[in-house]
């Protein structure tokens, strides 16, 4: 997973650096795709690498070195997952707006606005997960690093919150916007067929 994810995210980045894809004013959605490629590349080295290291070597990056590295990798893992899920929502919303409007140039479809959305999403989820950096990861009496909090029970509650924020809500909105886009395209095709048949007669 790490190798495949790295190869395809790097390939996406290389393709997006080509001259045909550099004009983000014409195609602001490219900002989302570039951000997703970067976020998903970072994400590959979070959860997936940790799972591999845990299974094969018996340790993870989260809790093997220092309390600081544990805090950093825990925060990074959650933040990148949340940003990735929500940027996918905005991509689906952007596509819906482009397909459903005669004049697709709304605030959401402008290059500057897309950058504001990406930046705002990043800041929001960094602040939302900031408690992980402050309260999570400490050394117990035996000197082992514990990836939890002394002040409040973190797991499994936060894993359930993560599941809703990263999977549940994004999946709902992606299905919703994609379904609306498909519905609009079907209606557009039907209207075109009816119009063409009237022209023939």
UniProtKB/TrEMBL annotation:
GO BP annotations listed: neuropeptide signaling pathway
Coiled-coil positions: none
Domain (G-protein coupled receptors family 1 profile) ranges: 8-201
Domain of life (superkingdom): Eukaryota
Main location: membrane
Membrane-spanning segments: 29-47, 72-93, 114-136, 156-177
GO molecular function: G protein-coupled peptide receptor activity
Membrane protein topology class: Multi-pass membrane protein
KW Membrane (keyword) present: yes
Entry keyword annotation includes Acetylation: no
Keywords of this entry: Cell membrane, G-protein coupled receptor, Membrane, Receptor, Signal, Transducer, Transmembrane, Transmembrane helix
Secretion signal span: 1-17
Localization of this protein: Cell membrane
Protein name per its UniProtKB record: G-protein coupled receptors family 1 profile domain-containing protein
């Amino acid at each position: 997973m790490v190798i495949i994810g790295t190869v395809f995210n790097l390939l996406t980045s290389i393709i997006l650096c080509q001259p045909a894809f550099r004009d983000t004013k014409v195609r602001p959605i490219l900002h989302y795709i570039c951000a997703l490629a970067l976020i998903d590349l970072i994400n590959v080295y979070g959860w997936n690498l940790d799972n591999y290291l845990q299974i094969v070597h018996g340790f993870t990056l989260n809790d093997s070195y220092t309390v600081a590295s544990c805090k950093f990798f825990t925060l990074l893992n959650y933040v990148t997952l949340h940003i990735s899920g929500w940027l996918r929502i905005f991509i689906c919303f952007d596509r819906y707006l482009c397909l459903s409007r005669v004049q697709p140039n709304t605030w959401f479809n402008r290059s500057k606005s897309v950058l504001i959305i990406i930046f705002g999403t990043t800041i929001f989820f960094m602040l939302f997960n900031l408690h992980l950096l402050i309260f999570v990861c400490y050394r117990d009496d035996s000197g082992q690093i514990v990836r939890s909090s002394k002040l409040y029970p973190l797991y499994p509650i936060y894993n359930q919150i993560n599941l809703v924020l990263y999977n549940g809500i994004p999946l709902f909105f992606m299905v919703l916007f994609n379904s609306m886009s498909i519905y609009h395209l079907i209606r557009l095709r039907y209207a075109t067929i009816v119009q063409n048949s009237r022209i023939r007669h």
